[in-house]
Write a structure and sequence with these properties.
- The protein has about 450 residues and is an alpha/beta fold.
- The chain has 15 helices and 16 strands.
- The strands form two sheets. Strands 7, 8, 9, 10, 11, 12, 13, 14, 15 and 16 form a ten-stranded mixed beta sheet that branches. A six-stranded antiparallel beta sheet has the order 3-2-1-6-5-4.
- β13 and β14 form a beta hairpin.
- It is elongated and about 80 Å long.
- About 0% of the residues have low confidence.
Length: about 450
């Protein structure tokens, strides 16, 4: 075998070993890297400086001890070694890809991602289960949590804000599972219009409702863009108001100067110290809020939120998981009943009818796009059966061979009481929603 063939074979072996690491090339160089650097000095550096420092050290190691590599292969290997030392190893390239919105690890040999609303399997894989567990330990230890057979499920958050859920055997039969929800990019209402999520009329309508201090519920299924829309709607809140946000994992990125962000806390390893969304909602009432924004209601905190909306905290916004506006309002009633108190459903219906003004329903379509499919006003009052009035809805066209979703927004005249309230607040609404428009009156229906 000639010199060129030997160099090529050695290089191929190294690249193959890098792809199927285990305790091979990357782990070996990572151990050498730890021997070369001063950890105390490294701790004083910023994350960017730390990565740059380690890349230089790894480069020197490869020059001194490594085989002959092309520039591309050398750069790739340096990055993999540093990722293994600092970050989440094979997942780091996916985390740095801004087009990836979710990462799903189903055991060491199966990784899926969501991109543009669609799932796709990627070639990324872990060398073995031990390497996957090492990544899991790195995630949970950063937030002082643990995961083992006695506590096989854990929620955590990465330094960049990404939400992480981990579940391991014996609950996960296919091996350790990691689900990472990327930190949502902030979209303005204009950007959402360009994406087709809503049109100009809906944008102006929602802006008027927020400024007029209507209580809004943003409803939709998982991954429909509820948090994204909530963040965009917050831009209509005047800068002079004090806003308190309450979330499981802090995702909202409000631009107003007076924002207090609260985040729930799970119990510690001893099962103590838990702070729930309900605790935070109740505490926020003592913090002199002008607006309360709840990332998602899913339990007893719904009743506290409704009471806040009914006792001087108008203009609050929350999200809820539901497949339609009817499901949303019925689910709010059900969630509000999940308290230690025995409250008649008629009283809960009174709270919902008095507290909620508008429900905005989002949907993720088969082509991955997200749209506002309905904006409905709560037309019922007091203890009446729930009635919803459709102000706008998206009429879908039949799906063609290209599987691209199309259609148009259809608007209706708003209920008179809603128009009067907007007028008293000095807000103008698009003509198609007003009494002077040519559109038909908003059709009402019972929600049951």
């Amino acid at each position: 075998m000639g010199l060129r063939d030997r160099i090529a074979a050695e290089r191929d072996q190294l690249v193959a070993a890098a792809r199927l690491d285990g305790e091979g090339t990357i782990s070996a160089y990572r151990r050498k890297l730890l021997d070369e650097v001063d950890l105390n000095e490294l701790a004083k550096l910023t994350p960017t400086q730390r990565r740059a420092r380690l890349e230089r050290v790894v480069g020197h190691l490869l020059t001194r001890e490594g085989p002959v590599l092309s520039n591309a292969e050398r750069t790739s290997l340096v990055r993999q070694i540093v990722d293994a030392a600092l970050g989440l190893g094979v997942l780091e390239p996916l985390l740095s890809d801004e087009t990836v919105t979710e990462i799903m690890v189903n055991g060491p040999g199966e990784v899926w991602i969501e991109r543009e609303g669609k799932l796709e399997r990627v070639k990324t894989r872990f060398a073995d289960e031990a390497q996957l567990y090492q990544t899991i330990d790195r995630i949970v230890s950063a937030v002082n949590r643990r995961v083992d057979e006695s506590s096989p499920m854990v929620d955590a958050r990465l330094p960049g804000g990404e939400r992480v859920n981990v579940i391991i055997p014996p609950l996960a039969l296919n091996g350790p599972s990691i689900t990472i929800r990327r930190f949502p990019r902030t979209f303005s209402m204009d950007e959402l219009m360009e994406l087709g999520t809503l049109d100009e009329s809906v944008r102006r309508l929602l802006g008027a409702c927020v400024r007029a201090r209507f209580n809004l519920i943003v409803s939709g299924g998982t991954g429909t863009g509820k948090t994204t829309l909530l963040n965009a709607l917050s831009a209509f809140i005047p800068e002079s108001e004090r806003i308190i946000t309450i979330e499981d994992s802090a995702e909202l990125q409000l631009q107003q100067p007076h924002v207090i962000s609260l985040e729930s806390r799970p119990p510690n390893v001893e099962g103590k110290g838990q702070v729930t969304i309900r605790d935070l909602v109740r505490n926020s009432l003592r913090m002199r809020p002008d607006r309360i924004l709840v990332g998602e209601v899913r339990g007893a905190e719904t009743l506290d939120m409704l009471q806040a909306m009914n006792t001087g905290h108008e203009g609050s916004i929350a999200t809820v998981h539901a497949n339609s506006t009817e499901d949303a309002i019925m689910r709010l009633e059900t969630l509000a009943s999940m308290t230690d108190l025995t409250i008649p459903f008629e009283a809960l219906r009174d709270q919902v009818n008095s507290g909620i003004d508008v429900i905005v329903q989002l949907e993720r379509n088969v082509d991955g796009s997200r749209r506002v499919v309905e904006v409905a006003a709560v037309a019922s009052r007091r203890r009446e059966t729930f009635r919803l009035a459709t102000i706008t809805r998206f009429d879908f066209d039949p799906i063609g061979p290209d599987r691209v979703v199309s259609g148009r927004f259809r608007h209706y005249r708003m209920p008179p009481a809603m128009l009067k309230r907007l007028a008293l607040a000095g807000e103008e609404v698009p003509e198609e929603f007003s009494v002077t428009g040519d559109e038909p009156e908003a059709p009402e229906r019972e929600a049951s």
